[in-house]
């Protein structure tokens, strides 16, 4: 079996990896010694390493394997497409069946006015392509000064140059350059760390007022768009105060600023709906970006969903006889689109969004029972997008020193007990496949209870 073969080769692979693979987001103070953990197999809610250790996957790969691992029918759909027609261009007037079918399906699932799809290979590329299209849109409307994008501190939008600039997590850009002239960051909406004495409603007013003041300062004529994750993910699973997104959208509408929802994580069921913008947050974005759960990670794919109103401008011929000169060799890749179509079929057939709506509140409730641990200052999130924040002092919310590596220690202890969760600094993130049941959640919370006990 593949497990046995990998077991025999584990040492060689470990060395090849350490010597040649530049890992993304990896701590090089320890990597050279520790090397990698090779994950070789997966099935349902589990993954397995090269030594045969089995873990419950508490992070859906990387917030993406929404339908769970080992779905043979997705593999089969990809194999069928790859053997029939693995790749051909979608430039000019060429297309392929899965790309066309998926575009129609996404238009059906998205809010009613979003009926046009631009494909890319992942979330960063989707955000990057979006900003390029937004700039082009305003250029074509004769508003070339509308260039600045408003993002937020602690946002995560990816690591291509533009997406990294949109990202507001300072440590992500340490000693990297960014395109600062194109982006302004507002405060993030962090209810746990909001100013002392402010109610959530007042905090919302405060954040909206900051946006209005920023528009006033920079000038609406210089601002193209506002981009936000419905719930901030990598920046700490921050749920904004009630009504925040709708009010931010109202500021956009009043100032001819486009509203872009980055649903790379929140899309495809994580909050109980295919898209959270309209159903959960009462917003009608001009653009929704998605990736990850779109194909449940079985193949790389990103998509930018664009409104009829924008497409009316993007889809008209250029005065100079030019073409819409943007796109990738792999825009609308047939094998990725075939994976996405089968993935969506599974989500619909198995009622996966409904499972999240039913079981999600139980996950929230059970994780909150971990608050009795000394370091657990906040348990937050929604449905299958959750986070535990570790602190030194619950009253003052003071953080533990970075060297304490509290998130790492908790994640390590959980892994020793058969559960993978994600450490991000002092945070521990739980973003599982959307097929977890109440029984799985009970097992997970038992493991986490022991892990926090051992680590803190
Ligand atoms: N946007 C959000 C909200 C994300 O969480 C991520 C990745 O985690 C991205 C964009 C970037 O996606 P990718 O890593 O596929 O480029």
UniProtKB/TrEMBL annotation:
NCBIfam families: PRK07036.1
InterPro entries named in the record: Aminotrans_3, Aminotrans_3_PPA_site, PyrdxlP-dep_Trfase, PyrdxlP-dep_Trfase_major, PyrdxlP-dep_Trfase_small
Highest classification ranks of the organism: Bacteria, Pseudomonadati, Pseudomonadota, Gammaproteobacteria, Oceanospirillales
Family matches, as PANTHER family: AMINOTRANSFERASE (PTHR43094), AMINOTRANSFERASE CLASS-III (PTHR43094:SF1)
Family named by the database record: Belongs to the class-III pyridoxal-phosphate-dependent aminotransferase family.
Cofactor requirement: pyridoxal 5'-phosphate
Alphabetized UniProt keyword annotations: Aminotransferase, Pyridoxal phosphate, Transferase
Name this polypeptide is given: Adenosylmethionine-8-amino-7-oxononanoate aminotransferase
An example Gene Ontology molecular-function term: pyridoxal phosphate binding
């Amino acid at each position: 079996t593949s497990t046995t073969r990998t077991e025999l080769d584990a040492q060689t692979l470990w060395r090849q990896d350490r010597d040649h693979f530049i890992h993304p987001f990896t701590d090089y103070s320890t990597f050279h010694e520790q090397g990698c953990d090779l994950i070789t197999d997966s099935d349902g809610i589990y993954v397995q390493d090269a030594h045969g250790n089995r873990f419950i996957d508490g992070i859906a790969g990387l917030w993406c394997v929404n339908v769970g691992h080992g779905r043979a029918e997705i593999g089969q759909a990809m194999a069928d497409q790859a053997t029939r027609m693995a790749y051909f261009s979608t430039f000019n007037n060429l297309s392929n069946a899965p790309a066309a079918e998926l575009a129609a399906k996404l238009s059906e699932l998205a809010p009613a006015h979003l009926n046009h799809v631009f494909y890319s290979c992942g979330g960063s590329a989707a955000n990057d392509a979006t900003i390029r299209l937004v700039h082009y849109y305003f250029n074509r409307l004769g508003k070339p000064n509308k260039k600045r994008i408003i993002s937020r501190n602690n946002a995560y939008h990816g690591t291509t140059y533009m997406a990294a600039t949109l990202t507001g997590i300072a440590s992500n850009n340490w000693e990297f350059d960014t395109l600062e002239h194109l982006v302004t960051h507002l405060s993030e909406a962090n209810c746990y760390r909001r100013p002392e004495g402010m109610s959530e409603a007042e905090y919302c007013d405060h954040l909206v007022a900051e946006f209005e003041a920023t528009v006033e300062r920079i000038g609406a004529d210089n601002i193209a768009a506002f981009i936000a994750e419905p719930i901030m993910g990598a920046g700490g699973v921050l749920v904004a105060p009630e009504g925040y997104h709708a009010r931010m959208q109202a500021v956009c509408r009043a100032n001819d600023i486009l509203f872009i929802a980055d649903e790379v994580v929140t899309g495809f069921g994580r909050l109980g709906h295919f898209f959270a913008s309209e159903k959960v947050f009462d917003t009608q974005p001009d653009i929704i970006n998605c990736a990850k759960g779109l194909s449940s990670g079985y193949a790389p794919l990103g998509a930018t969903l664009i409104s009829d109103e924008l497409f009316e401008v993007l889809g008209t011929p250029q005065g100079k006889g030019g073409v819409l000169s943007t796109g990738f060799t792999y825009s609308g890749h047939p094998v990725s689109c075939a994976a996405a179509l089968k993935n969506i079929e599974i989500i619909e057939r198995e009622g996966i969004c409904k499972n999240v709506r039913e079981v999600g509140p139980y996950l929230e409730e059970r994780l909150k029972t971990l608050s009795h641990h000394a370091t657990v200052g906040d348990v937050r999130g929604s449905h299958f997008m959750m986070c535990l924040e570790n602190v030194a002092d619950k009253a003052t919310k003071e953080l533990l020193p970075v060297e304490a590596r509290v998130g790492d220690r908790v994640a390590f202890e959980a892994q020793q007990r058969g559960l993978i969760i994600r450490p991000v600094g002092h945070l521990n993130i739980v973003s599982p496949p959307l097929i977890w049941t109440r029984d799985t959640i009970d097992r997970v919370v038992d493991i986490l209870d022991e892990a926090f006990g051992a680590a803190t």
